[in-house]
Each structure stands twice: as C-alpha cells, then as structure tokens.
Amino acid sequence: MSTESKLSDHILETDTQTVDDAVLDAIDTDAAGLDASADLQVLLEQDTDISSFLQGLAQVSSERFSGTQPVLCSIILDRSKRNVVVAASSPEAARLDEVQAGFDEGPCLEAQRTNTVISVSDVRSERRWPGYMAAVREFGMRSVLALPLTLRSESAAAMNLYTSTPEAFGPAEIEAARRYAELASKVGVIALRLAAYSENVEHLRAAMESRTAIDIAIGVVMAQNRCTQEEAFAILRKASSHRNVKLRTLAEELVATVGRQSASTVFDT
Questions:
Q1: From edge to edge, which strands make up the β-sheet containing 85-88?
Q2: How far apart are CA 15 and CA 22, in angstroms?
Q3: Angle at 40 (CA atoms; ends 39, 45), nearest 5 degrees
Q4: Of 114, 127, 198, 243, which residue is most buried, by most CB within 10 angstroms?
Q5: What percent of the chain is modeled with pLDDT above 70?
C-alpha cells in the first residue's frame, strides 16, 4: 500500500491521527482495538469447529487490513498428531498456501517454525525461497507479511498477508499487524481449547455407543450359550477375528439380528 493509504489508517478509519498513534489505538486502547476484539469474539460464539473458526478469522483479518487494495489472508495450523488445518480468505490465498506447502518453504512456514515476523517488501527483489517467490509473482502479489500465532500448546500456527502493492508493510503496519496477531492468538487459544473439549466429548460419546452394543451382544451370547460374561466376550472376540471385522461391528450385527434394530445409547440432554 502507498504512504497515502496505510494499513493502520484503514483499521482506524480516520485520517486525523498520526501513524504511531494509529498503531497503538488500532490494537490496544481505542474503539478500533475493541472492535477487533468484538469481531474475534463473534467467531468464538458461532459454535464452530477449529477449521470454521480459522476460516472466519482469515476472512475477518482480510477485511480489517484491506485498504485501497485488497489484502489476502491465509492461516496455517499444525496440531500435534492431527491433520494440518489451512484457512484462507479467498481461493487465491488458498492456492498461494498450497503452492507454499508444495515447496515446503516460504514466509508463512518460516514464521510458524521460528516464531518470528517475516516481511517481504517486494517479491521481485526477494532472494529467499526463490521457487515460491516466483509463484507469488505469477499471482500478481508484491508484498507479503507472515506473523506467528502463539497458541501456548503443541500447536504451531501463522498468518500470511498478501497484497499486490510493493512495500505495503512498513514499520507501522508491521507493528499494527503484530499486535493484531497477538490478539488473534489469545482468541485462538480459546478456540483450540473449545475444539479439544468438543472432540473429547464426541470421542466419549462414540466410545459409550460402542460399549453399549458390545455389552448387549455379550448378554445375548451369555443367554444363548449359558456362559459367563468373560466367556461370552471371548466368543465375540474370536468371531470378530475369524470374520476380520471390528468387534463393535460384529456386536451391532448380532444385536440387530436379535432385536431387529440397532443398539442405541440414550444420553440425557
């Protein structure tokens, strides 16, 4: 973005303050900072999973930083022992992240891995990540800013901002974006905790449903064979191994055959 259209000016939506004041007001104290908090809080209140939250965050961030030229936003989240989650404000931003993942290098991955802010003032003169920079130029982007998202967990994440204007992210813009990323990180920590809680509830529900079918099937085998619970369970496990099907699947089939309907677990709501 040009000097006349600063990213931080866009956040404040005023041209009566200095750039330095804009940086502080946008993130910390004044209405624009509070508005940012409100926007991010709305994302949490929408009762969505982590993928949907990050998608909303990318869209909100893109809208917040866009001035006379659009700013594209993408976010990458790497959760331990889970699939990498990628969110983007537009198909173009998503494609830029896909290409970066293909090269396995680039500003967003660098910010994520080193927990540092990475700025590319002009992709035409950037010498780092030559393959990816060539791809970014083909997309018509000129400036890139990558910011780590600190999530205080085993997860690692970063936010990428792209614009077609060279030298769009000067010191004031980088500082404003950094403070915004700090705020987004705090909300992201809550989103991850909520997602983990929701996932644990679903896992527990699935485990209880699986246990219900198996327990009923054990009772059926006990009645049919006049055997103990341990013996009935052993019979089911042997049949499961012989047929090469999961124990739960075998139990559900047996219960459905005897009761003419699938076993179900009743949860109080």
A1: 85-88, 71-78, 156-163, 143-149, 118-120
A2: 9
A3: 95
A4: 198
A5: 68
| Residue 253 to residue 257: CA distance in whole angstroms | 6
The first and second tokens of residue 39, run together, are 């926007």
Measuring CA to CA, which residue among 71, 61, 75, 70 is closest to residue 27?
61
- Distance CA(132)–CA(102), nearest Å, equals 9
CB 183 within 8 A of CB 36: yes
For 97-110, write each residue's pLDDT tens digit: 899 989 999 999 99
Angle separating helix axes 171-225 and 247-259, nearest 10 degrees: 50
In terms of Cβ atoms closer than 10 Å to its own Cβ (0-12, 13-18, 19+), residue 56 is buried
Q: How far apart are CA 173 and CA 227, in angstroms?
A: 74
pLDDT tens digit string along 241-263? 888 888 888 888 888 887 544 44
Q: Which residue is associated with the tokens 């990318």?
A: 58
Q: What is the model's pLDDT at position 95?
A: 92
Which DSSP state fits 157?
Answer: E
> Dihedral of the CA atoms 254, 255, 261, 264 (nearest 10)?
-130
Write out the H or E segment, with its range, that includes residue 171: helix 171-225
Q: How far is CA 98 from CA 108, 142, 178, in A?
A: 11, 18, 24
